[in-house]
Amino acid sequence: MFRSLSSACLRLVSSFRTGLAAICLPLAFAGCVSTPQQPYEVRAPMHQNAAFLSMYDERPDELHPMPATDISEVDSRFLRQEVNYPTREAPGTIVVDTSARYLYLVRENGRAIRYGIGVGKQGMSWRGRATVGRKAAWPRWTPTQAMIAREPERNAPWAGGMPGGLENPLGARALYLYQGSRDTLYRIHGTSEPWSIGKAVSSGCIRMFNQDIIDLHSRVPTGTTVVVLNRNPLTDPSLDETEALSPDDTI
Description:
This protein is an alpha/beta fold. It has helices at residues 2-32, 50-55, 145-150, 152-155, 210-219, and strands spanning 81-84, 94-97, 102-106, 111-116, 119-120, 128-137, 173-179, 182-189, 200-202, 206-207, 225-229. A nine-stranded mixed β-sheet has the order 1-4-3-2-11-6-7-8-10, covered by helices on one side. It has a two-stranded parallel sheet with strand order 5-9. It is globular, with a radius of gyration of 32 Å.
């Protein structure tokens, strides 16, 4: 009798466990499977941002129709953008920070348009104050005697000058830097080598994407003040757009 009662109890317990499992297992799995969530906002990389792509798009209306600049491999910080830039320099001034590889066009209220640049190799960079003495669209390029001596095979064939065009080293526009009536021989200009932006590879001049120099050229008149800084990035590694200039920076 007791054995029958025990068997009946075991069957009852087993039945209870089975029923409990039938109730709990779906709940347990429901706890493991997350409910559908709203997808995270996926922001397009800066390179794919429509505004940036538009800025570096083709320019078929130019004297020498320009193809789009491939910015897919460009560090996004070197793309044209407006940034905070507190400075003592007056709005309208061009400030070139060769160490940080930036050119700033100072605006009102502590703001500036920042452009990425390529700069001169070590020992060939220039610093100081100058003015834009002349502006040119699709300028003619003539290498200096020093440039010909350094790279005769590349530069000697153009000793008489190279006409403006897509292969011209000065690119689509040029701003000629003067001190008083003296041409410093330094230029802010476009480039036929967009991969060089952000690097120190030129013969001392300040190079920009062709689309950027076209933009800058359209914004500044002849006589614009240009301040070229040449700080040592090894002793001043924290250079960024929020740093105010000190008097020593503008000698």
